[in-house]
Amino acid sequence: MKHLLSLLETSEQDIQDILNLADIVKAEVKQGIYKPYLKNKTIGLIFEKNSTRTRVSFEVGAVQLGAYPLFLDASTMQIGRGEPIQDTARVLSRYLDGIMIRTFEQAEVEALAEYGDIPIINGLTDFAHPCQVLADLQTIREYKGKLEGLKMTFIGDGNNMCNSLMVGALKTGMSFACACPEGYLPDPKCLDFAKAYGDKFQLTNDPMEAAKDADVILTDVWASMGEEGEAAQRKAVFEGVYQVNAKLMEQAKSDCMVLHCLPAHRGEEITEDVFEAHANEIFDEAENRLHAQKAVMVLLMQD
Ligand code: CP
Ligand code: NVA
Protein backbone atom coordinates (compact mmCIF):
# COMPACT_ATOMS: atom_id res chain seq x y z
CA MET A 1 0.00 0.00 0.00
CA LYS A 2 1.55 3.32 -1.10
CA HIS A 3 -1.34 5.73 -0.46
CA LEU A 4 -4.82 5.78 1.04
CA LEU A 5 -6.78 7.49 -1.74
CA SER A 6 -10.06 5.62 -1.32
CA LEU A 7 -11.08 2.12 -0.23
CA LEU A 8 -11.65 1.16 -3.88
CA GLU A 9 -7.86 1.19 -4.36
CA THR A 10 -7.15 -0.43 -0.97
CA SER A 11 -6.87 -4.22 -1.00
CA GLU A 12 -8.86 -6.43 1.36
CA GLN A 13 -5.58 -7.51 2.95
CA ASP A 14 -4.46 -3.90 3.49
CA ILE A 15 -7.80 -3.09 5.15
CA GLN A 16 -7.35 -6.07 7.50
CA ASP A 17 -3.73 -5.04 8.24
CA ILE A 18 -4.87 -1.50 9.10
CA LEU A 19 -7.63 -2.77 11.40
CA ASN A 20 -5.30 -5.22 13.14
CA LEU A 21 -2.60 -2.59 13.72
CA ALA A 22 -5.27 -0.10 14.85
CA ASP A 23 -6.27 -2.57 17.58
CA ILE A 24 -2.62 -3.00 18.60
CA VAL A 25 -1.80 0.72 18.82
CA LYS A 26 -5.07 1.29 20.69
CA ALA A 27 -4.20 -1.42 23.23
CA GLU A 28 -0.70 0.07 23.63
CA VAL A 29 -2.04 3.56 24.34
CA LYS A 30 -4.52 2.15 26.88
CA GLN A 31 -1.49 0.71 28.72
CA GLY A 32 0.37 4.02 28.50
CA ILE A 33 2.78 2.74 25.83
CA TYR A 34 3.66 5.23 23.08
CA LYS A 35 6.04 3.56 20.64
CA PRO A 36 7.87 6.03 18.35
CA TYR A 37 7.01 4.15 15.14
CA LEU A 38 7.51 7.37 13.13
CA LYS A 39 10.31 9.09 15.04
CA ASN A 40 11.53 12.27 13.28
CA LYS A 41 8.98 11.96 10.46
CA THR A 42 6.83 14.89 9.37
CA ILE A 43 3.29 14.87 7.99
CA GLY A 44 1.48 17.81 6.39
CA LEU A 45 -2.25 18.10 7.04
CA ILE A 46 -3.86 20.18 4.28
CA PHE A 47 -7.42 21.36 4.92
CA GLU A 48 -9.64 22.98 2.29
CA LYS A 49 -12.73 22.26 4.43
CA ASN A 50 -13.56 22.53 8.13
CA SER A 51 -12.73 19.76 10.58
CA THR A 52 -12.78 18.89 14.27
CA ARG A 53 -12.10 15.14 14.46
CA THR A 54 -9.83 14.69 11.47
CA ARG A 55 -7.54 17.57 12.36
CA VAL A 56 -7.23 16.77 16.05
CA SER A 57 -6.91 13.00 15.65
CA PHE A 58 -4.22 13.33 12.96
CA GLU A 59 -2.26 15.90 14.96
CA VAL A 60 -2.45 13.94 18.21
CA GLY A 61 -1.87 10.62 16.42
CA ALA A 62 1.28 11.89 14.72
CA VAL A 63 2.67 13.24 18.00
CA GLN A 64 1.93 9.93 19.76
CA LEU A 65 3.93 8.16 17.02
CA GLY A 66 6.93 10.46 17.45
CA ALA A 67 6.20 12.37 14.23
CA TYR A 68 5.69 16.11 13.74
CA PRO A 69 2.37 17.23 12.20
CA LEU A 70 2.00 20.51 10.30
CA PHE A 71 -1.52 21.92 10.06
CA LEU A 72 -1.76 23.59 6.63
CA ASP A 73 -4.82 25.74 6.02
CA ALA A 74 -5.25 25.65 2.24
CA SER A 75 -6.71 29.16 2.18
CA THR A 76 -3.41 30.56 3.49
CA MET A 77 -1.24 28.37 1.24
CA GLN A 78 -0.40 29.29 -2.34
CA ILE A 79 -2.90 26.59 -3.50
CA GLY A 80 -5.48 29.07 -2.19
CA ARG A 81 -4.13 31.56 -4.77
CA GLY A 82 -4.08 29.08 -7.64
CA GLU A 83 -0.69 27.33 -7.41
CA PRO A 84 -1.23 23.99 -9.18
CA ILE A 85 -1.55 20.89 -7.01
CA GLN A 86 1.06 19.20 -9.24
CA ASP A 87 3.68 21.76 -8.18
CA THR A 88 2.56 21.74 -4.55
CA ALA A 89 2.99 17.95 -4.57
CA ARG A 90 6.55 18.13 -5.85
CA VAL A 91 7.56 20.88 -3.42
CA LEU A 92 6.02 19.28 -0.33
CA SER A 93 7.60 15.91 -1.25
CA ARG A 94 11.00 17.56 -0.64
CA TYR A 95 10.09 18.53 2.94
CA LEU A 96 7.58 16.03 4.27
CA ASP A 97 7.29 12.26 4.75
CA GLY A 98 3.53 12.14 4.16
CA ILE A 99 0.48 14.30 3.41
CA MET A 100 -3.11 14.08 4.56
CA ILE A 101 -5.47 16.22 2.51
CA ARG A 102 -9.13 17.17 2.99
CA THR A 103 -10.53 18.74 -0.15
CA PHE A 104 -13.38 18.74 -2.66
CA GLU A 105 -12.28 16.87 -5.79
CA GLN A 106 -10.97 13.32 -5.60
CA ALA A 107 -8.84 14.25 -8.63
CA GLU A 108 -6.83 16.61 -6.42
CA VAL A 109 -5.88 13.80 -4.05
CA GLU A 110 -4.97 11.62 -7.03
CA ALA A 111 -2.84 14.42 -8.53
CA LEU A 112 -0.91 14.78 -5.25
CA ALA A 113 -0.21 11.03 -5.35
CA GLU A 114 0.78 11.12 -9.02
CA TYR A 115 3.12 14.10 -8.88
CA GLY A 116 4.52 13.75 -5.37
CA ASP A 117 6.65 10.87 -4.15
CA ILE A 118 5.44 10.55 -0.57
CA PRO A 119 2.36 8.73 0.81
CA ILE A 120 -0.95 10.60 0.40
CA ILE A 121 -3.90 10.04 2.76
CA ASN A 122 -7.43 11.12 1.84
CA GLY A 123 -8.87 12.94 4.86
CA LEU A 124 -12.24 13.40 3.04
CA THR A 125 -13.24 14.42 -0.45
CA ASP A 126 -16.68 14.77 -2.01
CA PHE A 127 -16.17 11.18 -3.21
CA ALA A 128 -14.76 9.31 -0.22
CA HIS A 129 -13.96 9.32 3.49
CA PRO A 130 -11.76 6.24 3.94
CA CYS A 131 -10.25 7.21 7.32
CA GLN A 132 -13.70 7.50 8.84
CA VAL A 133 -14.82 4.15 7.47
CA LEU A 134 -11.69 2.38 8.76
CA ALA A 135 -12.56 3.72 12.23
CA ASP A 136 -16.16 2.57 11.72
CA LEU A 137 -15.05 -0.95 10.80
CA GLN A 138 -12.72 -1.05 13.80
CA THR A 139 -15.63 -0.04 16.06
CA ILE A 140 -18.04 -2.62 14.63
CA ARG A 141 -15.44 -5.36 15.04
CA GLU A 142 -14.86 -4.31 18.66
CA TYR A 143 -18.56 -4.52 19.50
CA LYS A 144 -19.50 -7.56 17.40
CA GLY A 145 -16.22 -9.52 17.49
CA LYS A 146 -16.26 -9.89 13.68
CA LEU A 147 -17.28 -8.21 10.43
CA GLU A 148 -17.82 -11.20 8.14
CA GLY A 149 -21.50 -12.04 7.74
CA LEU A 150 -22.92 -8.89 9.37
CA LYS A 151 -25.37 -6.57 7.64
CA MET A 152 -24.57 -2.85 7.41
CA THR A 153 -27.29 -0.37 6.42
CA PHE A 154 -26.83 3.26 5.38
CA ILE A 155 -29.78 5.67 5.31
CA GLY A 156 -29.65 9.01 3.50
CA ASP A 157 -27.54 10.84 0.96
CA GLY A 158 -25.41 8.73 -1.39
CA ASN A 159 -22.41 10.82 -0.37
CA ASN A 160 -18.74 10.30 0.50
CA MET A 161 -19.67 8.29 3.62
CA CYS A 162 -22.13 6.10 1.76
CA ASN A 163 -19.57 5.44 -1.01
CA SER A 164 -16.81 4.46 1.40
CA LEU A 165 -19.03 2.42 3.72
CA MET A 166 -20.33 0.44 0.74
CA VAL A 167 -16.84 -0.48 -0.40
CA GLY A 168 -15.45 -1.03 3.10
CA ALA A 169 -18.35 -3.25 4.20
CA LEU A 170 -18.29 -5.44 1.10
CA LYS A 171 -14.48 -5.78 1.14
CA THR A 172 -14.61 -7.02 4.74
CA GLY A 173 -17.29 -9.66 4.14
CA MET A 174 -20.33 -7.71 5.33
CA SER A 175 -23.49 -7.26 3.31
CA PHE A 176 -24.52 -3.70 2.58
CA ALA A 177 -27.92 -2.10 2.05
CA CYS A 178 -28.49 1.57 1.40
CA ALA A 179 -31.64 3.64 1.15
CA CYS A 180 -31.13 6.85 -0.81
CA PRO A 181 -33.67 9.08 -2.57
CA GLU A 182 -33.72 9.28 -6.39
CA GLY A 183 -31.25 11.90 -7.54
CA TYR A 184 -29.03 11.36 -4.47
CA LEU A 185 -27.62 7.93 -5.27
CA PRO A 186 -24.06 6.80 -4.51
CA ASP A 187 -21.23 7.30 -7.01
CA PRO A 188 -21.54 5.07 -10.13
CA LYS A 189 -17.99 3.68 -9.64
CA CYS A 190 -18.94 2.42 -6.18
CA LEU A 191 -22.26 1.09 -7.44
CA ASP A 192 -20.45 -0.85 -10.19
CA PHE A 193 -18.09 -2.26 -7.58
CA ALA A 194 -20.98 -3.23 -5.29
CA LYS A 195 -23.14 -4.84 -7.98
CA ALA A 196 -20.50 -7.55 -8.42
CA TYR A 197 -21.38 -8.73 -4.88
CA GLY A 198 -24.85 -9.91 -6.00
CA ASP A 199 -27.39 -10.22 -3.21
CA LYS A 200 -24.89 -9.03 -0.59
CA PHE A 201 -25.67 -5.54 -1.94
CA GLN A 202 -29.04 -3.78 -1.93
CA LEU A 203 -29.94 -0.29 -3.16
CA THR A 204 -33.46 0.96 -2.46
CA ASN A 205 -35.43 4.17 -1.91
CA ASP A 206 -37.13 2.63 1.13
CA PRO A 207 -35.31 3.04 4.50
CA MET A 208 -37.58 0.47 6.23
CA GLU A 209 -36.63 -2.14 3.64
CA ALA A 210 -32.90 -1.38 3.94
CA ALA A 211 -32.98 -1.51 7.75
CA LYS A 212 -34.48 -5.02 7.90
CA ASP A 213 -32.34 -7.31 10.10
CA ALA A 214 -29.44 -4.83 10.14
CA ASP A 215 -26.54 -5.38 12.56
CA VAL A 216 -25.37 -1.79 12.22
CA ILE A 217 -27.12 1.30 10.86
CA LEU A 218 -25.33 4.46 9.79
CA THR A 219 -26.47 7.80 8.50
CA ASP A 220 -24.92 11.17 7.69
CA VAL A 221 -25.95 14.76 7.09
CA TRP A 222 -28.37 15.55 4.27
CA ALA A 223 -26.13 18.35 2.96
CA SER A 224 -22.37 17.83 3.09
CA MET A 225 -19.64 20.46 3.24
CA GLY A 226 -19.76 22.44 0.01
CA GLU A 227 -23.49 21.76 -0.45
CA GLU A 228 -24.73 24.40 2.01
CA GLY A 229 -26.49 26.23 -0.83
CA GLU A 230 -28.64 23.15 -1.51
CA ALA A 231 -29.60 22.60 2.14
CA ALA A 232 -33.23 23.73 1.85
CA GLN A 233 -33.86 21.78 -1.34
CA ARG A 234 -32.28 18.67 0.16
CA LYS A 235 -34.26 19.03 3.38
CA ALA A 236 -37.47 18.96 1.36
CA VAL A 237 -36.42 15.65 -0.26
CA PHE A 238 -35.03 13.86 2.84
CA GLU A 239 -37.25 15.14 5.65
CA GLY A 240 -39.62 12.69 7.31
CA VAL A 241 -38.31 9.67 5.37
CA TYR A 242 -34.51 9.41 5.45
CA GLN A 243 -34.11 9.46 9.21
CA VAL A 244 -32.76 6.98 11.76
CA ASN A 245 -35.53 6.94 14.37
CA ALA A 246 -37.18 4.49 16.77
CA LYS A 247 -39.58 3.17 14.12
CA LEU A 248 -36.73 2.43 11.72
CA MET A 249 -34.76 0.70 14.51
CA GLU A 250 -37.68 -1.73 14.99
CA GLN A 251 -36.83 -3.20 11.59
CA ALA A 252 -33.27 -3.99 12.63
CA LYS A 253 -31.92 -6.75 14.89
CA SER A 254 -32.55 -6.08 18.57
CA ASP A 255 -28.80 -5.61 19.21
CA CYS A 256 -28.29 -3.37 16.19
CA MET A 257 -25.57 -0.72 16.57
CA VAL A 258 -25.94 2.87 15.35
CA LEU A 259 -22.92 4.84 14.18
CA HIS A 260 -22.56 8.39 12.88
CA CYS A 261 -19.36 9.97 11.56
CA LEU A 262 -20.36 13.30 13.16
CA PRO A 263 -21.15 16.13 13.18
CA ALA A 264 -24.81 15.04 13.59
CA HIS A 265 -27.97 17.05 13.02
CA ARG A 266 -30.42 15.79 15.62
CA GLY A 267 -34.00 15.89 14.39
CA GLU A 268 -32.82 15.65 10.77
CA GLU A 269 -30.95 12.46 9.76
CA ILE A 270 -31.14 11.01 13.30
CA THR A 271 -33.44 11.56 16.27
CA GLU A 272 -32.14 12.68 19.66
CA ASP A 273 -33.40 9.49 21.38
CA VAL A 274 -31.67 7.10 18.96
CA PHE A 275 -28.48 9.17 19.02
CA GLU A 276 -28.32 9.21 22.81
CA ALA A 277 -29.23 5.51 23.13
CA HIS A 278 -26.17 4.74 20.96
CA ALA A 279 -23.87 7.50 22.19
CA ASN A 280 -21.28 5.05 23.58
CA GLU A 281 -20.90 3.43 20.16
CA ILE A 282 -20.80 6.78 18.37
CA PHE A 283 -18.12 8.27 20.61
CA ASP A 284 -16.05 5.05 20.56
CA GLU A 285 -16.26 5.44 16.78
CA ALA A 286 -14.98 9.01 17.05
CA GLU A 287 -12.14 7.84 19.32
CA ASN A 288 -11.19 5.15 16.84
CA ARG A 289 -10.37 7.81 14.24
CA LEU A 290 -7.21 8.32 16.28
CA HIS A 291 -6.22 4.65 16.42
CA ALA A 292 -7.18 3.73 12.84
CA GLN A 293 -5.30 6.72 11.41
CA LYS A 294 -2.22 5.96 13.49
CA ALA A 295 -2.24 2.51 11.89
CA VAL A 296 -2.57 4.08 8.42
CA MET A 297 0.32 6.49 9.08
CA VAL A 298 2.56 3.70 10.38
CA LEU A 299 1.83 1.35 7.49
CA LEU A 300 2.40 4.08 4.90
CA MET A 301 5.25 6.09 6.42
CA GLN A 302 7.42 3.72 8.47
CA ASP A 303 10.87 2.97 6.92
N1 CP B 1 -16.16 12.81 10.89
C1 CP B 1 -15.27 13.76 10.54
O1 CP B 1 -14.51 13.61 9.58
O2 CP B 1 -15.27 14.84 11.37
P1 CP B 1 -14.56 16.24 11.11
O3 CP B 1 -15.25 16.86 9.92
O4 CP B 1 -14.76 17.00 12.37
O5 CP B 1 -13.11 16.01 10.81
N1 NVA C 1 -20.68 13.91 4.37
C1 NVA C 1 -20.09 14.82 5.32
C2 NVA C 1 -19.14 14.11 6.22
C3 NVA C 1 -18.50 14.97 7.27
C4 NVA C 1 -17.51 14.24 8.11
C5 NVA C 1 -19.41 15.95 4.59
O1 NVA C 1 -18.73 15.68 3.58
O2 NVA C 1 -19.56 17.09 4.98
Automatic annotation (TrEMBL):
SUPFAM superfamilies xrefs = Aspartate/ornithine carbamoyltransferase
Pathway where it operates: Amino-acid biosynthesis; L-arginine biosynthesis; L-arginine from L-ornithine and carbamoyl phosphate: step 1/3
Q: Give me the reactions it catalyses.
A: carbamoyl phosphate + L-ornithine = L-citrulline + phosphate + H(+)
Domain spans labelled Aspartate/ornithine carbamoyltransferase Asp/Orn-binding: 148-300
InterPro entries, sorted: Asp/Orn_carbamoyltranf_P-bd, Asp/Orn_carbamoylTrfase, Asp/Orn_carbamoylTrfase_sf, Asp_carbamoyltransf_Asp/Orn-bd, Orn/put_carbamltrans, OTCase_ArgI
Which cell locations does it reside in? Answer: Cytoplasm
Q: Where is the Aspartate/ornithine carbamoyltransferase carbamoyl-P binding domain?
A: 2-142
Question: Which residues make up the binding site for L-ornithine?
Answer: 160, 220, 224-225
Q: What is this protein called?
A: Ornithine carbamoyltransferase
Source species of the chain? Absicoccus porci
Q: What gene, per UniProt, encodes this protein?
A: argF
